[in-house]
């Protein structure tokens, strides 16, 4: 009986995400059987063996615990195998971000971050170039870290950057920020100065200007201007508790998806509805103890950006002193 329940749940899950015809077609290919035999498995007249279920799940790229609604075990998908590149990393972003463009789906997207959501960096050239150099150095490139202006940009990389920026900006989201969400970026930049990772001071100046523009952009997004533009339902909260990891939650009529460490090349993904529900309930508790700083939350928003600008000025002062030591 348990096996039949698992089989029924498995096929219901696949049909919901794809279609009955798609599932039947994949079964005939993967299992090497005729459509009639595949249909009997779909109806439950023929038992689906464990190895058959694994092979079908692998073809669709779904986890068995999510498909059979197992609440006691979780399977996490990771995006890379040995030999991946930064383009593979960003390409996986586009795969997971594409549903955000389908505004016909009834879906929600929530992001809680211990730093600024990485999507905001994609539309700022020098910040993106800086992060790209760090990612390459840490994960794929064993050569000495050197951060410089890129005179030629890989067209595919530039396309991925634009796609990701557009995907994220096209969709109303809920975000939970904290007052130190740029601290990691600041510390990375300061450290790179001390190891003379920048080719010259001009890039550092451009990078600083980019951060200034980013802060101004964030201020505009959280204000009334955002609510009157293409972000009519976006909400941004401020909370100093709970933001010790990057957690993104996506729900649509097709699936639920939970991302952990989403702005790192080794982020993991779970499609488990049980894990999503647990995470979503936790996020709701966080939101109840948070302060809304978007739209009507004018007073708290201004206080938030006063601190952000003060922190930025302190960062610039430290940066200038270090640059004078290490580059003059």
List the helices and strands and how they pair.
Elements: H1 2-17, H2 20-31, H3 35-43, H4 50-60, H5 64-67, H6 86-97, E1 108-112, H7 119-122, H8 125-140, H9 155-169, E2 174-177, H10 183-194, H11 201-222, H12 224-227, E3 235-238, E4 247-251, E5 256-260, E6 268-270, H13 273-288, E7 291-292, H14 298-326
Parallel strand pairs: 1-2, 2-3
Antiparallel strand pairs: 1-4, 3-7, 4-5, 5-6
Helix pairs in contact: 1-2, 2-3, 2-4, 6-9, 8-11, 10-14, 11-14
Q: Biggest sheet, in brief?
A: 7 strands, mixed
Termini separation (Å)? 76 Å
Give me the side-by-side strand order of the main sheet. Answer: 6-5-4-1-2-3-7
The secondary-structure class comes to alpha/beta
Helix content bin: 55-70%
State the oligomer. single chain
Overall structural domain count: 2
Q: In what range is the share of β-strand residues?
A: 5-15%
Radius of gyration: 23 Å
Could you report the average pLDDT, rounded to the nearest whole number?
A: 82
Low-confidence spans: pLDDT under 50, at least 5 residues? 225-229
Structure write-up:
- With 328 residues, the protein is an alpha/beta fold.
- The protein folds into two domains: 66 residues; 241 residues, no CATH class.
- 55% of the residues lie in helices and 9% in strands.
- The protein contains 14 helices and seven strands.
- Strands 6-5-4-1-2-3-7 form a seven-stranded mixed sheet, sandwiched between helices.
- Helix 1 crosses helix 2, helix 10 runs parallel beside helix 14 and helix 11 packs antiparallel against helix 14.
- The longest helix is centred in the C-terminal third of the chain and has 29 residues.
- The chain is globular, with a radius of gyration of 23 Å.
- About 2% of the residues have low confidence.
């Amino acid at each position: 009986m348990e096996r039949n329940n698992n089989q029924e749940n498995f096929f219901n899950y696949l049909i919901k995400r794809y279609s009955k015809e798609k599932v039947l077609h994949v079964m005939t290919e993967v299992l090497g059987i005729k459509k009639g035999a595949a249909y009997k498995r779909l109806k439950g007249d023929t038992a689906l063996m464990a190895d058959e279920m694994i092979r079908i799940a692998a073809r669709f790229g779904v986890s068995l615990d999510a498909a059979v609604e197992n609440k006691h075990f979780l399977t996490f998908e990771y995006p890379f195998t040995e030999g991946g590149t930064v383009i593979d990393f960003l390409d996986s972003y586009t795969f997971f971000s594409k549903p955000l463009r389908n505004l016909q789906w009834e879906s929600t997207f929530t992001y809680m971050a211990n730093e600024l959501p990485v999507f905001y960096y994609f539309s700022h050239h020098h910040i993106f170039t800086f992060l790209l150099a760090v990612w390459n150095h840490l994960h794929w490139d064993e050569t000495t870290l050197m951060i410089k202006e890129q005179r030629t940009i890989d067209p595919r990389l530039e396309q991925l950057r634009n796609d990701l920026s557009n995907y994220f900006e096209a969709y109303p989201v809920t975000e939970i920020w904290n007052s130190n969400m740029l601290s990691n970026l600041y510390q990375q930049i300061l450290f790179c100065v001390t190891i003379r990772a920048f080719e010259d001071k001009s890039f550092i100046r451009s990078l600083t200007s980019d951060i200034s523009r980013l802060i101004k952009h964030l201020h505009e997004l959280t204000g009334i201007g955002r609510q009157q533009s293409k972000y009519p339902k976006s909400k941004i909260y401020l909370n100093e508790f709970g933001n010790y990891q990057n957690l993104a939650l996506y729900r649509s009529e097709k699936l639920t998806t939970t991302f952990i460490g989403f702005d790192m090349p080794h982020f993991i993904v779970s499609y488990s509805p049980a894990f999503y529900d647990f995470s979503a309930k936790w996020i709701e508790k966080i939101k109840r103890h948070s302060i809304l700083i978007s739209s009507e939350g004018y007073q708290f928003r201004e206080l938030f950006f006063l601190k952000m600008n003060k922190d930025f000025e302190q960062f610039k002062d430290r940066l200038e002193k270090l640059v004078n030591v290490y580059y003059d």
